[in-house]
């Protein structure tokens, strides 16, 4: 199996300020209370319009970026086994990106998707008043996922 696709071919325009109200309905972006901080984050990453079947990440690849699903769903799988799906408003790939470790699964779009992609090094270029709430938000999301996984394991 080859690596994930070159996603640069799917880059689309950064949302305009008029779209910020809809962005704030996405939990990842609701932490930014003013337009200035939201603009900083929105311009710090790239926006992708990916067709169905796009390989966002492959098991075993080093993770350097993470994604926020703005529209659509992504299937997460290990080999041929579906592990679950990530849909609108959810975060994907943050653990590999934050830990600078290999991806633990494949992620493939199940339908046409719009995603926000943030490379982990872009965090170094963001002001502290933006990075701090963003990182707290990411850690909370990750902690909730771990808690859910722990609960599932305890039921086995």
Automatic annotation (TrEMBL):
<feature type="domain" description="Cyclic nucleotide-binding">
    <location>
        <begin position="51"/>
        <end position="126"/>
    </location>
</feature>
<dbReference type="Pfam" id="PF00027">
    <property type="entry name" value="cNMP_binding"/>
</dbReference>
<dbReference type="InterPro" id="IPR000595">
    <property type="entry name" value="cNMP-bd_dom"/>
</dbReference>
<dbReference type="InterPro" id="IPR014710">
    <property type="entry name" value="RmlC-like_jellyroll"/>
</dbReference>
<dbReference type="InterPro" id="IPR018490">
    <property type="entry name" value="cNMP-bd_dom_sf"/>
</dbReference>
<protein>
    <submittedName>
        <fullName>Cyclic nucleotide-binding protein</fullName>
    </submittedName>
</protein>
């Amino acid at each position: 199996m080859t690596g994930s696709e070159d996603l640069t071919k799917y880059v689309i325009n950064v949302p305009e300020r008029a779209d910020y109200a809809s962005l704030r309905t996405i939990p990842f972006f609701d932490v930014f209370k003013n337009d200035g901080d939201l603009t900083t984050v929105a311009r710090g990453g790239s926006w992708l319009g990916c067709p169905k079947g796009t390989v966002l990440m492959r098991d075993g690849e080093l993770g350097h970026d993470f994604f926020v699903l703005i529209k659509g769903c992504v299937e997460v799988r290990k080999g041929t086994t579906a592990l679950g799906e990530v849909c609108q408003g959810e975060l994907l790939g943050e653990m590999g990106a934050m830990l600078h470790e290999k991806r633990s699964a494949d992620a493939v779009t199940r339908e046409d998707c719009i995603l926000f992609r943030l490379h982990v090094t872009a965090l170094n270029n963001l002001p502290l008043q933006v990075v701090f709430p963003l990182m707290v938000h990411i850690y909370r999301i990750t902690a909730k996922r771990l808690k859910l996984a722990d609960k599932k394991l305890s039921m086995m």
